[in-house]
Task: structure prediction
Amino acid sequence: MGTRVFTAKDNQMDSAEWEEAVSILRSGGLVAFPTETVYGLGGDATNPEAAQKIYQAKGRPSDNPLIVHIADLSQLGDVVAEMPEIGRRLAEHFWPGPLTMILKKSDTIPYETTGGLDTVAVRMPSHPIAQLLLKKSGVMIAAPSANASGRPSPTTAAHVWEDLRNRIDAIIDGGTVGIGIESTIIDLTEDNPLILRPGFVTKEMLEDVIGPVGMDPGLEKENTKVRPKAPGMRYRHYAPRAELTLVEGSSRDVVAKINDMTEVAMAKGQRVGILATEETKREYCRGEVVSVGKRRDEAEIAGHLYAVLRRFDDLGVDVIYSESFDDSGVGQAVMNRLLKAAGYRRISAGEDMDRVHSFK
Ligand code: TXA
Ligand code: MG
Result:
């Protein structure tokens, strides 16, 4: 299958191309498109065959449910069986935007879309192209991130092309996305609201609107006893091809440790990637050093993270040593993705950190 690429400049696209994109979606085909978080791989959420095509194109296990994207609140009744009061408040504050809610599904949404679950993930994206695609087609769009299963989520159309060319009908190229990390997922189907995946909308932001919000215990760093509730969070994911290790500690200790580890790995003939920051990138003597942004700017780090992980794939490194980041605000989502990419492999640099760990 040849994959068409439609190019949108300043969110404007040729009307003939819009027509084509819409007709692909309406006839059960697949169109990748930009959202404010990452690129999504879209198909008709009410069409079981379209859902199956999505799993196939990504190589994704079919028990890992998809997120249903809607244009406006008038479509909500077609997706969910009921909307609790706190859901309404969240929608008012955060939609359109990077928040996904888990709710009881309606009969219109087939089990193929929800991976066999009675609940459904729903989100109203704010990206103008996502909005236009939803509005012009009138289709509710099931869309996972548009990467091949196991690869970092795509933040440009080129990333989608790398992973899915000739496996999907079309890609709308709307440039680099703004946020760069997937939406926050909150589960509203139990007594207490629970974050299943941290994202750009933080726990604090949610609590300001609806009061106490829990964090899925399955997300905890080395918690191997409780499985994450979102099926997609159970797999090693967001993963670069090389083995990634996170190094924790003070900036000075981390740089020294990574320099040491790099020497050792290179002596063994390994190619080393170093995930650094603007502040530290000049302090590394050897290896392929890639900066993810300014340490102080969490949003910039979130925005660059996946592109940097893909860059290490292109560089063909064998191992990656990464600095770690503050676990507050959006940093929580960054650390969640990095730890998963590392398969939770992390070490501490310097004595102080060793002591901290031995007390745990
Ligand atoms: O920002 C985003 O959310 C992007 C853009 C394209 O909207 N989409 C995205 O989709 O990240 P995906 O498929 O890569 O991640 C969806 C996550 C998976 O971890 C999946 O297991 C979880 O949502 N999920 C979907 N439906 C669920 C449900 N009913 N219950 C629990 N988890 C669910
Ligand atoms: Mg994904």
Q: What stands out?
A: The pocket of magnesium ion (ligand 2) is lined by residues 144-145, 153, 232 (CB under 6 Å). Residues 352-360 have pLDDT under 50 and may be disordered.
